Amino acid sequence: MTLLHFRKNAGGRPAAPEVEAFLDGYSIEVMPRTAEKVEDFRALLPAKTRVYIAHIDGTPIDDMVATAARLKAEGFDVMPHFAARMIRDKAMLADWIARYQGEAGVDQALLLAGGLDAPKGAFADSMQMLDTGLFDRAGFKRLHVAGHPEGNRDIAPDGSDRALLDALRWKQAFRDRSDADMAIVTQFCFEAAPVIAWADRLAAEGIDLPIHIGIAGPAKLQTLIKFSVACGVGASLRVLQKRARDVSKLLLPFTPERVIADLAAHKAANPDFNIERVHFFPLGGITASAAWATENGGDAAKPANQI
């Protein structure tokens, strides 16, 4: 006889099996200044969880590398951001790669343009960084790139997705000619339908890079709306706006049960659906996001060689 294990969530209800499966191997991100407030990440996260380190403009590289080394020592897979528009030139990029490798044992990176309006130096986007060959020569095993289910006005001011699709095709071709495993990690979203439509569009266009869908962890509604407007989250923002009109819910934290449940159900019904992992943006704090993931079935991460 097979005994099924059901994790109970905060409400005392068992975590749905499809949600537990969908959350398996989730990742999360942190900034150096918030990491300083966490005494021991092993008390929050499953062993081997992939932890992205967000590089905000103005954060010294010393702080980034020190945070990476600490997380690596605590037993996590570390993936720092490389924001193209913050990097002055090829020499600086090479130095950062060498420091992450030599001081923290890092062999993974998220490459993105970054939130600056204009580049500080030679790089405007992640493709230009990949084109240097520095990550290949350094032996980075995993390189993630950014995805935008609801568009990106920096890349396509007219709201079209042609430039975004062309960029993903270029990155897929890079994967095919390199040794690196690659995946798309997306901006956070609040509604499943636009995400499913976007993921299906990529598949129809022949883009088969695995998708790690961005999800905002529990946070105050006002906080999420502020970040959503700043980050250009579009269509699914209406979920927050609708909730804001309900005075009885206005002061309660927003949690991602609905979007996770809808995506998990779709994945269970369509096993070939190309969303493979969940990536949490802990906008309401890493403790709250980690606790929510655990209560809803998130468990030990899959080995790093799996997606």
TrEMBL record:
SUPFAM superfamilies: FAD-linked oxidoreductase (SSF51730). GO terms for molecular function: oxidoreductase activity. Gene3D superfamilies: 3.20.20.220. Keywords: Oxidoreductase. InterPro entries: FAD-linked_oxidoreductase-like. This is Methylenetetrahydrofolate reductase. It comes from Maritimibacter fusiformis.
